[in-house]
């Protein structure tokens, strides 16, 4: 008996594969408007700072997609899963992934984003693009919108918080301020009653509860440089405030909104936040990223299967 074939469109923000692709990538983010030489240099410098011209970021996503396909097929008796990548701002774009599925004869698929928290401006946009491409091609798609409270996700993040606290030798864990962070979005999502901020706080609380920590807070990071205001407070401002007003000396950052080592983790936290912490005389540590952690892969697996069997 032949197995039922199901495609899985694994969507994420995307990143350039090499230094010479940065301008095209940045232009796509800016909706076709090329960056100024100053803007391009600023982004190029950030990539140079973390990777010296070599790009591990795309490799992280590639490995996640491979590991997810293996996890899905390992435990499946009657379904053969095939994973496809669909990126928001780089090739293969979301539309490319859907078209490839159709070309391969896939008629049934599930879409999932490598981001646990839903916003109409992020995950919602990915789903819309996939749906609009899939329908005319005859690919029936279902979508996982969020999985921010999946027990295995919370467990994986909690284990990372606990391990990081234990590695901070000579400091009692209650004396470490744990700060959960995620990518900021424009403030206008609040008027739209977007679930993104509430989902992030719910995840943070669940991780803190499981790890047994009470000394924690939430902050935003990596806001875009636009004329409209973005959600705050920003992580850099938070570090300065808790140092000045509460004399906090030890901080553990848990970038709960990111599932792999992105620029926002490797540069915004590991370089910018670390640099500020050193200047303030604070000790700053970070939890390791989920990347291909089996618990994260199983979170995705469960979420996909639940959506697939949901009428």
Q: Could you outline the blueprint of secondary structure elements for this entry?
A:
Blueprint (H helix, E strand, L loop, with lengths): L3 E9 L9 H8 L7 H15 L5 H18 L4 E9 L6 H10 L4 E6 L9 H15 L2 E4 L7 H17 L9 E7 L12 H16 L4 E6 L13 H12 L3 E5 L8 H4 L1 H13 L2 E4 L7 H15 L3
Parallel strand pairs: 1-2, 1-3, 3-4, 5-6, 5-7, 7-8
Helix pairs in contact: 3-11, 4-5, 6-7, 6-11, 8-10
Strand residue percentage: 15-25%
Gross geometry: globular
**How many beta-strand segments?**
8
Helix content: 40-55%
| CATH architecture group name of the largest domain | 3-Layer(aba) Sandwich
* Sheet/helix structural class: alpha/beta
The ordered string of helix (H) and strand (E) elements is EHHHEHEHEHEHEHEHHEH
The average pLDDT score comes to 95
What does this protein structure show overall?
Belongs to the ferrochelatase family. This is Coproporphyrin III ferrochelatase. The protein has a 4-stranded parallel sheet, sandwiched between helices. It has a 4-stranded parallel sheet with strand order 6-5-7-8, sandwiched between helices. The protein starts with a strand and ends with a helix. β5, α7 and β6 (216-221) form a beta-alpha-beta unit. The longest helix is centred in the N-terminal third of the chain and has 18 residues, at 57-74. α4 (94-103) packs parallel to α5 (123-137). With 311 residues, it is α/β, with parallel strands linked by helices. 46% of the residues lie in helices and 16% in strands. It is globular, with a radius of gyration of 20 Å. It has 2 domains: 4-147 and 292-308, Rossmann fold, CATH 3.40.50; 151-286, Rossmann fold.
């Amino acid at each position: 008996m032949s197995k039922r074939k199901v495609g899985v469109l694994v969507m994420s923000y995307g990143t350039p594969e090499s230094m010479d692709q940065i301008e095209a990538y940045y232009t796509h983010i800016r909706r076709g408007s090329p960056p100024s030489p100053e803007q391009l240099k600023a982004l190029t410098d950030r990539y140079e700072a973390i990777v010296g011209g070599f790009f591990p970021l795309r490799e992280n996503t590639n490995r996640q997609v491979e590991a997810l396909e293996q996890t899905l097929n390992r435990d499946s008796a009657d379904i053969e899963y095939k994973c496809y990548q669909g990126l928001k701002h780089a090739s293969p774009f979301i539309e490319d992934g859907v078209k490839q599925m159709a070309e391969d004869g896939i008629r049934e698929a599930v879409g999932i984003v490598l981001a646990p928290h839903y916003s109409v401006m992020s995950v919602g946009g990915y789903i819309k693009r996939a749906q609009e491409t899939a329908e005319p091609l005859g690919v029936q798609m279902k979508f996982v919108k969020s999985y921010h409270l999946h027990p295995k996700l919370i467990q994986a993040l909690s284990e990372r918080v606990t391990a990081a606290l234990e590695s901070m030798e000579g400091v009692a864990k209650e004396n470490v301020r744990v700060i959960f962070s995620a990518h900021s979005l424009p403030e206008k999502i609040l008027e739209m009653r977007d679930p993104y901020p509430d989902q992030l706080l719910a995840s943070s609380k669940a991780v803190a509860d499981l790890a047994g920590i009470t000394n924690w807070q939430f902050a935003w990071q990596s806001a875009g440089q636009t004329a409209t205001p973005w959600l705050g407070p920003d992580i850099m401002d938070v570090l300065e405030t808790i140092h000045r007003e509460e004399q906090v000396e030890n901080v553990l950052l848990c970038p709960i909104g990111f599932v792999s080592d992105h620029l926002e983790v490797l540069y915004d936290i590991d370089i910018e936040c670390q640099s500020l912490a050193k200047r303030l005389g604070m000790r700053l540590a970070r939890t390791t990223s989920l990347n291909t952690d089996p618990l994260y892969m199983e979170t995705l697996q469960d979420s996909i299967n639940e959506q697939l069997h949901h009428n």
